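Protocol step 6 of 9: fold each sequence in the batch and record its structure tokens directly after the sequence line. For illustration, a two-sequence batch is reproduced in full.

Sequence one:
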Amino acid sequence: MGDENEEFLEDMKDTFSIFDKKGDMKVEDDQIINVLRSLGLNPLTSDVNKIIADSDLKGKRVDFETFYGIYKQMSGQPSVGTYEDMVEGLKTFDREQTGHISGAELRHILSNIGDRMTEKQCDDIISHQEDQTGLVNFEHLIKFVMNA
């Protein structure tokens, strides 16, 4: 079991070093969230920013040992997406950058990825948001879902 932990720690260091742009085994404070996400966590931006502020790390380069403490703290927390996180996630499907995605594509995403929804659940959410061309304004959709 110790070998597994050492191997995981080495993998963490390798991932951390990818974000080290100066070669001193430190990363910029604004890269901490990206390293956490690369290690399989999905922390809220606000939570990471709070830890950075509370730890007086804002504007500083963070060494691996300090980062590891942040990782341990974040790995024990459940993750819940904010409005901004959801908008950013759906923007990846907005190829034309119009603020809209296809209702059909959204149904596919909701019924096949993550916590899968049934066809009826998808229709209950999307049918009220689709325009005549079958597109959904995802910012309006997120506000609708969050207020439901």
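Sequence two, same batch, same settings:
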Amino acid sequence: MKKSITIMFAVIALAALSLGSAAAQGQAVTIKLNEVQGSGDFGTATLTAVGPNQVRVVIQMGGTMPMEHNHPAHIHQGRCAALNPTPTFPLNPVTNGQSDTTVPVALTALLASNYAINLHESPAAITTYTACGDITALSAVGLPPTGNGAGLLLASALLLTALLLTSLGLLLSRVRAA
């Protein structure tokens, strides 16, 4: 009897850990990148949690940007209206309207603080910004594609609590019957 109870609690604990990990990975938001200084450049940056401290940043650009050129892109501290000029996380340059980079930071850390993604005209004109977007849940385009994980985590915790209480109730009823 004690062995089956131990196995049951181990299964519940493993389920809780795997559900929490699944909620953290795959979490994503899409940020609108707006033109700066009349550049005509615009697009989106989709930030997806791919690990506990890793975010994949996929940029898709449109507008008048010469697509074949390399356009430096970075994550900076601050907001588009007042960026720290020193990049916090460099991103792969936008070439042919696209960039894909994985950076060593948690998505929740980016969303909880003041960060922005900005694009530059070229490596030679690095001080000329062409597009920028604040990284906040409020500036996200539409709803986050996979949610923020908080709802799933809460539902998982409630489900595990219900399973635990049911198991304890069954155990108590067996002990009283014996």
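Proceed to step 7 once all outputs are recorded. Observation for sequence two: Residues 14-24, 142-155 have pLDDT under 50 and may be disordered.
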